[in-house]
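Sequence only, no structure available. Ideas?
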Amino acid sequence: MAIKQKFTFFDIINIFFLCLFGVVTILPFMHVIAKAFSGEGPVIAGLVNFLPKQFQVDTVLYVLQRSEFLGAFRISAIVTVIGSALAMFLTVTAAYPLSKPNLIGRKFFLYIFVFIMLFNAGMVPNYLLFNSLDLLNTIWALVLSGTFSVFNMFIVKNYFESLPESVEESARIDGASGIKTLLYVVLPMSKPVLATITLFYGVGYWNNYMSGVLYITKASLKPLQQYLFDLTNEALNIMDSTGNIKNIDSAMNLTGESVRSATIVVSTVPILILYPFLQKYFVKGITIGSVKG
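Reply:
I predicted one. Tokens follow.
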């Protein structure tokens, strides 16, 4: 016999506000998508709300063919992949020893990490450091500026502490070293938190704008978010150096506003594709990793 679930007044209010929050979140993105796929006339006239008018794909195709966009997309993709891998390596190697109560000086190191999380050097010292290391106008400036998050490290540490100690003891009895125990026992059991933190780092790198502003002046090294910012603050030029329209058929449906919208939509697609593969780990990883200790 099926048990009927009773909804309390609080449940109804909670569901209402969550639905309202979801609608408020999704509507601006729907508006951008609608402008990206709408014709020139409705966009200029301001008639586009949440559904495309005079549907067309010329704008998206134009964005995908622009060398500036492809270059910025490539830079952001490289930085995201390398940076996330390096950040996860540093996070795991810091979190694992700190999860052991018998670590000598553990409390001292924890205090140091908490202090770093609350107080950081700031933009000027970081810029001076990168300048002294000759990292300005290099990809490594974008990578190293976000390679470690103390908050993420604490989430991973707490998750490691929630794992059964008996499993690691069995591995040590079988002769496994600390590194082998971490690689072959702890990490396979920690997929939820690893997937969650990888997503955090990946989204952080992909959306990183300030590092490009601070450390990059070469146009060929600008990340995608910096390119988007420049695009939203400049009128898009769809003409070549002689003043002629590059592609008459495409230009019939192109406006600066629609191209900016299409660029934003295209740049969001990689994260939207990645998230469903990590979603099953997301809730478990962030919940268990954040409630202990």
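The chain has two domains: 13-56, 67-164+192-291.
Hope that gets you unstuck.
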